[in-house]
Amino acid sequence: MPKPHRAKVKKAPGGSALLFAALGDPTRLQLVSRLADGAPLSITSLTAGTRVTRQAITKHLRVLEEAGVLRGTRRGRERLWRIERQGLRQARRYLELISSQWDDALSRLQKLVEQ
Question: Of 58, 62, 68, 106, which shows the fewest CB atoms inside 10 Å?
Fold first, then answer.
């Protein structure tokens, strides 16, 4: 009998938990969404129109940077933030792996039920 498919999930990149934890926060997810729209933005731009302080936004940006979702670069006196596409590709690959495993499991269940 083949090994359970769960073994593949355990082999996923170690940063996946950190990545999904970072994306699981509504404020951080909103920041990613705003940055996904285009050009890099400063903390001032990311804070505008929100009720979140610059200090809090900075902390959220650091979490996203540590998870590999964003990258901050200095331009003059400010730091500009942009999406780190590789981090989002990692999340997509991991979700596709899980989806494939569920599809396989449901297919096996369907065959078993139909017997």
Answer: 106
